[in-house]
Specification:
The chain is of the alpha+beta class. It folds into 2 domains: 171 residues, FAD/NAD(P)-binding domain, CATH 3.50.50; 129 residues, D-Amino Acid Oxidase, Chain A, domain 2. The chain is 29% helix and 27% strand. It contains 8 helices and 24 strands. Helix 1 packs parallel to helix 5, helix 1 runs parallel beside helix 8 and helix 2 crosses helix 8. The protein is globular and about 65 Å long. The chain starts with 5 loop residues before the first strand and ends with a strand. 49% of the residues are buried. The protein binds flavin-adenine dinucleotide. The site of flavin-adenine dinucleotide has 42 residues, from helix 1, strand 16 and helix 8.
């Protein structure tokens, strides 16, 4: 009998959690390291809209579509997930662009349909000024991102994974070009494979083995109201505001699907977002802002995921991406298949890390 491969996963956000869940249930000996608490940094600050919406070329659309399908499988397999397949109502583009997006995505098989004002009123009765038309995608959904990552980590633990919190990885170990594990404050942890799912911290780790990853970190702001009774049924993407209601009744709003940067005055920007929600949603007029979250989005420089093995660095695998909430289940499944069986999913072919890696200066 061959021993289970020993795999170190750096990062316990939604990407590391999904990878750990898939690897551990396939029999790998998984240890997850996180510099902070389990659940990630970008992950708890995410709007968490699961979608394959506008702005994506077809190969990326296909990956996102596959991820949406994988969410449904995860929903069945991971105890405690709360995925709300509430659908998304969208009119956040100028009309011509909106029609063109819908036509293109519909031709790709996305379940998107035009809805009139009276249909919008049925879908979202509390919108004060519904537009003349919008598009509706019933198959889009949302999750509570931190709770979802925690559920996947708990599932991984149930399959034997170890999750280490407050365990900063200082550097990656290397021997004749092979990555051999990670350096913790307690010593060196040897691994057959090391997966970097460290979000915005990934570039710093790669620098420790002489690699520079082109990674942007745009900030996104979300305003979270105090809990209220049901005011919204689904995701609402208007030109002024993207807003959804969480499982506990909070209205969460940002100005585009990734949030907004706000000249440093985050509390004022969050208050302004909440005021827009109050103006948009009947019944929300007196719902106060409770808190805001501001998170850096781990965004590879060309905007697409970085998933796979860098050239000439056996023992190393990278999983760094924006839209990580949408993509997490697919990345978990595909990473496990590549690490354990050597099968690279064809949907990942455009996202080889090498395109954004350079020797560190
Ligand atoms: C405002 C906002 C809105 C968003 N909206 C959406 C959306 O609607 N839909 C969508 O799909 N995506 C959205 N995203 C993007 C999505 O949230 C991220 O892509 C995803 O959360 C990334 O997950 P991650 O696990 O890679 O990173 P993280 O959650 O940041 O986790 C990385 C973890 O690595 C750890 N780490 C880093 N360095 C080290 C180290 N040296 N040693 C040990 N641990 C380390 C960190 O402590 C952290 O816990 C949004 C993001 C933001 C900020």
């Amino acid at each position: 009998m061959t021993a289970a491969p020993r795999i170190a996963v750096v990062g316990s956000g939604i990407i590391g959690a999904s990878i750990a869940w898939n690897l551990s249930r396939a029999g790998a000996a998984v240890t997850v390291f996180d510099a902070g608490k389990r659940g990630g940094i970008a992950t708890p600050a995410s709007f968490a809209w699961i979608n394959a919406s506008w702005g994506n070329p077809e190969p990326y659309f296909r990956l996102r579509e596959q991820a949406m399908m994988e969410w449904r499988i995860l929903d069945r397999d991971v105890p405690g997930l709360q995925i709300n397949w509430c659908g998304g109502l969208i009119w956040d583009l100028p009309p011509e662009e909106l029609h063109a997006f819908a036509k293109q995505h519909s031709s790709w098989g996305y379940g998107i349909r035009e809805v009139t004002r009276s249909e919008i009123e049925n879908l979202e009765p509390n919108l004060k000024s519904p537009p003349e038309f919008a598009y509706h995608v019933p198959e889009e959904g949302m999750v509570e991102p931190l709770a979802t990552a925690l559920a996947m980590l708990a599932g991984a633990e149930a399959h034997g994974a170890t999750i280490l919190e407050n365990c900063n990885i200082k550097w990656l170990g290397e021997d004749h070009g092979r990555v051999t594990g990670v350096q913790t404050h307690e010593g060196f942890f040897h691994a057959d494979e090391t997966v970097i799912a460290a979000g915005t911290g990934s570039a710093e780790l790669l620098a420790s083995i002489g690699l520079s990853l082109e990674l942007a970190k745009p900030m996104g702001l979300l305003a979270h109201s105090k809990p209220a009774g049901e005011l919204l049924r689904g995701l609402v993407m208007s030109p002024e505001l993207h807003v959804r209601q969480t499982a506990e009744g909070r209205l969460v709003a940002g100005t585009d699907f990734t949030g907004a940067t706000a000249n440093g005055k985050l509390d004022e920007a969050a208050a302004a977002l909440n005021a827009k929600v109050q103006a948009m949603v009947a019944g929300a007029e007196h719902i106060e802002l409770d808190f805001f979250t501001a998170g850096e989005r781990p965004t590879p420089a060309d905007g697409f995921p970085v998933i796979g093995r860098p050239d000439n660095r056996p023992g190393l695998y990278l999983a760094v991406t924006h839209s990580g909430v949408t993509l997490a289940p697919a990345i978990g499944v595909m990473t496990a298949a590549e690490l354990l069986q050597g099968d690279r999913d064809s949907l990942l072919l455009p996202y080889h890390p090498e395109r954004l890696l350079r020797p560190a200066a």
